[in-house]
Amino acid sequence: xxxxxxxxxxxxxxxxxxxxxxxxxxxxxxxxxxxxxxxxxxxxxxxxxxxxxxxxxxxxxxxxxxxxxxxxxxxxxxxxxxxxxxxxxxxxxxxxxxxxxxxxxxxxxxxxxxxxxxxxxxxxxxxxxxxxxxxxxxxxxxxxxxxxxxxxxxxxxxxxxxxxxxxxxxxxxxxxxxxxxxxxxxxxxxxxxxxxxxxxxxxxxxxxxxxxxxxxxxxxxxxxxxxxxxxxxxxxxxxxxxxxxxxxxxxxxxxxxxxxxxxxxxxxxxxxxxxxxxxxxxxxxxxxxxxxxxxxxxxxxxxxxxxxxxxxxxxxxxxxxxxxxxxxxxxxxxxxxxxxxxxxxxxxxxxxxxxxxxxxxxxxxxxxxxxxxxxxxxxxxxxxxxxxxxxxxxxxxxxxxxxxxxxxxxxxxxxxxxxxxxxxxxxxxxxxxxxxxxxxxxxxxxxxxxxxxxxxxxxxxxxxxxxxxxxxxxxxxxxxxxxxxxxxxxxxxxxxxxxxxxxxxxxxxxxxxxxxxxxxxxxxxxxxxx
Amino acid sequence: xxxxxxxxxxxxxxxxxxxxxxxxxxxxxxxxxxxxxxxxxxxxxxxxxxxxxxxxxxxxxxxxxxxxxxxxxxxxxxxxxxxxxxxxxxxxxxxxxxxxxxxxxxxxxxxxxxxxxxxxxxxxxxxxxxxxxxxxxxxxxxxxxxxxxxxxxxxxxxxxxxxxxxxxxxxxxxxxxxxxxxxxxxxxxxxxxxxxxxxxxxxxxxxxxxxxxxxxxxxxxxxxxxxxxxxxxxxxxxxxxxxxxxxxxxxxxxxxxxxxxxxxxxxxxxxxxxxxxxxxxxxxxxxxxxxxxxxxxxxxxxxxxxxxxxxxxxxxxxxxxxxxxxxxxxxxxxxxxxxxxxxxxxxxxxxxxxxxxxxxxxxxxxxxx
Lengths: 530, 369
Fold this sequence. Notes:
A: Rossmann fold, globular
C-alpha cells in the first residue's frame, strides 16, 4: 500500500447566508492514494462538490473551509494564493460538468491548450504546439492538427469534454479531480468519456477523484467509493464491497434507486387519443431581405405515431435527435407539417383561438425543473394559471382549492403553495409542474425528460407518481427521455430517433431486450441494461 | 384533504431582495437620504424664511451666514444710502435691541414721506418720523428687519436656500417623471417587440434605430421651435430620447425570456399572448428594469441640467440644479457659494441614486446568495 497523496481530515465547509451559517460539509475525512480512483457519491446538496472546491480554494465568496487537506504532507487549506496556484493546474487538475462554459468561446482550442503549456512548463511555442497535438491524440480527438484551429462551438459536447481533459492532463498532474464530468453528456458519449479516463489513468498513473451522483458511473470507474449525505460521510469502502453489502441504509437506498417495475399493457381496443402522421419540422428557413431563402435544417423528418388511451410511448434518442422538437410540434408550439389528430379531430391547421379549448386536453411537463416555473409566481399561482385560462368563471377560492387538490395528488404539501419556486428542491418543483398539467384534467401529458435533471432516488419517486396518476386518470403519456432505465419502467412502446428519423420502434421489452439496429444497441449498452 | 390549507409565509424573491437591500448599509442610507432630500425640496420652500422669487436689493451676493442679516456694520452704510435717496442727512444714529433711532437733517426740513424710503429698504421696517426741536431736524425710529440667508444670496439678491430647494423640485421631478416615462414606453415597446418577434420586431427596432440617429439637441431645438418654451417639453424631450435604451434592453431580455421553458409551458397551457406578457414576461423583466431606472434617473437629471445650461430647459424665476450650477460657475471668483450649494445637492443626490442602483442590482441577483 502506497502512502496517500491527498489526505483530508475533518473537513468542514460553511456558508454565511441571510438565514445564518449553513454547514454544507460536516467533518469529512478520506484519502486518495497514488494511481487510485476514488468516487464521492451523493445526491445534489450533499456537499460532495464543495469539499474539493474548498480544498482548491474555489469556494463562493461567502464560503469558508476548515480542516486539514494534506497533499504530500503540505496542508492546502490556508495556503496563500500564490503557493496554491503552483499546485493547482500543475499537480492537481480539475475538470467540470459543463464543457461549454469551461472553454473560452473566443479562442481556438489550440491556443487554449498551448498557452498553459508555455506558461507552466516553459516550452517554446513550437514545442507547445507539438505537445498540444500529442495531447489531443491522447484524448482520441480525430484529426488533431485540423482541430487545433477549431473554436469550442465547432466541437460536440463530448469533444469539448475531451479537450478539457487534454488541458487538465497537459501538466501530468498527480491528481485529477473530475466533478460530474459526464452528467451533461449523452449516455453513449458518457460511456466513451469514462473509458477514456480509465485508459488515461492506466497510461499516466494519476489518481482520479470522481465526484458524481450516478452510481452506474461509480461501478464502472472507481476503486473505492465514499458515500455522502447531508454533508456527512455515511459509508466508505471498495466498490465491490459497498455494492454487494452496503452497511448503511442510505447507501442501500441509493443502490436500489433504479426505477423498477413494468407498465401493465393497455387493451388493444382502447380508443386512439392522438394520431400523428408524417410530422416534419424545419428550422432556419427564413426569408431575409435581399437574400435567397435558405433550405433550412430538418429537425424532424416524417414521423408518425398512434397513442391510445392509457398508453405510454417512450421516445428515446441522443440529444439532437429531434425528440423534443417532435413533442413541441405535436403541442403546436412549433410550426410543423403533417397531420395531428386529437380525438380524431385534425388540429394542425387550427388558429390559436380555435386551438385554445383543445390545449386543455394535451399538457406538458418539461425537463428543467428550474426553468419551467416562473420565478415570480407562487406554486399555487403556477398550478392555478391553467384554470384562469380554461375556466374563467371559477372564483379565486375555487381555483385555489383545485390547485391544492392537484398538488395533494402529486404528493406535494399544499400548505407550501404560497412559496416561490426557488425555495423548492428539483423533485418538488417537478411535482408542481406535474400538478400544473394535471389540474386541467387532460387526457394526454407530454413528458419531456421530466426526470433527467433529478437524482436517482427522486427519479424513482417521480416515476412511481407518474405511473399511479396514469392508472387513476387513464392518462396517455408521450415520454421523452435519453434514459432507457426510466423509459423501460414507464412505456408500452418505444420509438428510437436519430437525426429526426425513426430508427426503430416496437414494444418496450422487444426494443430494449433485442435491439435490431446498431444505434439502439449502443444506447442500450451505454444505459447498462444489456 | 380539500379544505384550504393555512397560509404559510413564503419568502418571495422580492422580500428576499428587500432584506438584502436593507442589509446593504450604503444603499439603505442612500434611500433614506434621497427621501429626506425629496421631503426638503417638496416642503422646504414653504418653510424657509424667504420666498424664492423675492429680490432683496440690499442683499445681493451676500455670503452664507448662520445668524441673521443685517450685520452691525451693514446698518450704517445702508442708512446713509437710504438717506441719500430720501435727500436727508443723518447726523447721528444708534441701535438698541433691534430699534434704530437716528437724527435726520435736511436744509428745507424733513418731510414725513421720507419714512417710506426707509420702509422700502430690505433692512428697515416700521419707520416713523417725529419732528425734532428745530425745523430742519427730525427723529427717525425704525425696526431692523432680520433676514436669514443660510446659503447666501445670488446676484439679484434672491435667497439661495429657497432657490436650491425649488430647483431640487424641478430636478427630482424631471428625474422621476422622465425616468418613469422612459421606463413605461421603453418596457411596453421593447417587450412587445421582443415577444412578437419576426417582422414586427424588425420593423419596431428599425424605428428605434431611426430615432437614435436624430441628434438629441437638434431634436430638442425642433420641439422648442414648434411648441415654444414649456416646462413639460423638457420631460417630453428627455423621456422621448431615454426610452430608446430601455426598449433595447427590454427587448433583449424578452427574447431571452421567451425561450425559457416556463413561457413555453404557459403557451402549452393555452395562456394568451397578452397573458404571457403580463404574467410571465413583465414580472421577470422587473429586475433589470428597476436597476436600469436607477441608472436612468441620474442621467436624466444631468441631461436636464445640460438643456437648462444651454437655455432650453426651465426659465427664470423657476430654476433647476443645472441652471443654478451654470450661474454659479460664472461667479466662482467672488461668490463661490453660488456654485458650491447646488453642486453639493446635485452630486450627493446622484451619489445616493447610484448607491441605490448598485444595492438593488446586488439584492436582485439570485446568483449572489
